[in-house]
Structures are given as C-alpha cells and as structure tokens.
Amino acid sequence: MAAGAVLLLVVHGLGRFMYTPLLPYLMNDGLFSAADGAAVATWNYMGYLMGAMLAIRWHRIDHIRRILPLAVVVHIATTVLVAVEADLTAISTTRWLNGVANGVVFVQAPALILEWLVLRNRASLSGLVYFGVGFGLLLSAGVVSGTADWLEGPERWWPAAVISVPLAAWGTWKLMQLDVPMHPPVAINKCGKALSTRLFDRASTPLFLAYAGAGLGYILPMTFLPLLANVELKPGHWLQDGSWLLVALCTILAPWIWNRLGAIIGDILALKINFAIQLAGVLAAVVIPGAPGLILCAILVGVTFLGTVLLTQRIGRALHPHQGPRLSAAMVALYGFTQMVGPWLTKQWLDAGGTLSSAFGIGVGALAFGLVFLFFVPRPNEWHSRAV
C-alpha cells in the first residue's frame, strides 16, 4: 500500500499537479501566456488519456509487471527534460509524454494493489493508496513556494525531478514483489457460464457517465485555482500561493474519510454526497468573488476529488468483479478524456474574451450532469441478484 501511495505521489503530485502552482510563476517568467498554459495542460491530459487507454489494452497482471516499470522510467525522464526546455512546442511534447506515463501508472499501480487486497479479502482498504496523491499535492505546494525565489523558468521543475528518482525506484521495486497470480481464474455466474466481459451495460454505463462529469468538473480548479487567485486578488495575497496549499491540506485525509464513509453508508450514497459537496465548491468560485469563494473552492474540492476516484473505482469493480484492472483502466481513460476537454474549453473561453472565473461554470454543469446519472447506478448486490 505504501509503495503504491509513493508512486502516486511521484506521478500525480510531483509530475502532474505540480504544474498547477507552477503555472503563475512560469507565466511571470515569460515562458508562456495563460492560454498557452492551458494548451500545455491539455497536452498533458491528452497523454494521460492515451496512457489509460494503453492500460486497457495491457490490463493483465503479466502486462502490468512489464509495463509499469517502463512507465515510471518515462515519467522520470520527461520530468528531467521539462526542466531544461524553454520552447513551447518542446514543453508541450514532453508534458504529453509525461501524461502517457502518468496514465499508465495511475491505472496499473492501484489496480495491482486492489487485486492483491481482494485475494486477501481486504478490498475495503483499497482507497488508502490515494493518500499518496494528497501528500504529493502538499509536497508540490511546499517545493514550489520554497524554491520560488531562487529558481526561474524551466529550472523550477528540478526539485521535483530530484525528489522523484529515489521515491519512484523504491515504490516500483516494492510493487513488483507483490504476490498476485498472473492469470486469475475466469469468473462464472450461478448457471456455470462465464460472465460477460462487456465494459458498458445497464449497470456500468451511468457510472461511466457520472465519472465523466466528475473529470470535467474537478479539473478546472485543480488546474487554474492558483492562477485565478493571481487574477482576482491583490499582489502578495496569501492565497496566491496558499490556495494550492489549502487544497493539498484538505486532500490529506480525504481517502480515509471517503473510504470510511463508503463502508458505513454504502459507496453509492457516499458518492452522491461527494458530488454534491464538490459541485458546491466549484460553484463557490463562480458566484462568490474574491478570497471567500477561492477558499471554499479549495476546501470543498480538495476534500472530495480523491473520494470520487476511490468510490467510483470500488463501485465499478463491485458491479463487474471479473473485470479488474481492465475496468479501472476504462474508467481512468474516460476521466482522462474529460480532464483533457476542460483546459481546452477554458482556452477557447479565454480566447473568446471570457473570464477565468466564469469558465469554472463549465465544471459546475459537468458535476451536476454527473450527479444526475449517479441516481441510475444500481447497488451491486441488487444488480447481481437479478435473474441471469
């Protein structure tokens, strides 16, 4: 569990989301504009989508044991490369490739751990691997603010590269030692027939659609919240660096909170509550100007978005227990697609003369869309008790 959390800390905290607090500094350094920054984010999210799609193709345990270490190496290499590049095209290409590696690791590491836990009847602990993302966000906030005065331009990525190398090496080594069968037995129904391998059916389709809404809804504040603070607040305001730190602090306990709440009241009900809180957070940034709206957005999105991931993944596997890593990969791919769309829509909105604050309304609509579809997701026990 600790090894998986460390890998997520590296690829998500120091690789992907470190870009969020870095973006205002990179713009002030003259590396690119807000619209260019949104485009770079879109390339990274496109890579994330492609990585998740690769994980759908290579979803078996024997695949994971070969592909996961390679993806970690690519992640480290691209983090080093982006620290020495100043050309926008080169940065976009490197961040795209970094996203591919991130998508593979983010699917395969938790999926491998979940299969290991299921074999030991401890699947309810699976959400705790996402502690790594929360600590990664906190570490990224500290690294960016702590080195802001003595680094400039692309070299602002160097601390992330240096920290990532030993952590990634240890996490990969430990995960490769997990005892998980290479080829799990084929699941059968009560009539003795092999279960369907369709990813989309009446149970999973509304869950996929809800997850798509969540991906588009959360990615706007998770990409642009510090930039919004720089736009709306006076220079030197503590939220210009502090908004991302606030998100990170609220994220720390989120896996435990939603893991526990799902176990108490059921994952589906917990997920509905999660969506409602997250929607309120993004809405706050739209309708409440200045610091109060930013603080509410940081707190409510920070405390919920990891819960969305772990609860959805667990519900999906409960509906299709025979799908395992393949289902997880498909969900992350869809999530990745909507995350890619978010910065692209923001860029179009900004280019058309819209404000960054009003662009967050896209996220509000997406989360409302997702919440509606959650009411069509059946409880796993009721779904499996239906006549075959």
From TrEMBL:
It comes from the Bacteria. Gene3D superfamilies: MFS general substrate transporter like domains. The keyword GTP-binding does not apply. It is a multi-pass membrane protein. GO terms for molecular function: transmembrane transporter activity. The chain crosses the membrane at residues 37-55, 67-84, 96-118, 125-144, 208-229, 241-258, 293-315, 327-346, 358-377. Pfam families: MFS_4. Keywords: Membrane, Transmembrane, Transmembrane helix. One of its GO terms (cellular component) is plasma membrane. InterPro entries: MFS_4, MFS_trans_sf, Sugar_transporter_CS. It is found in: Membrane. This is Transporter.
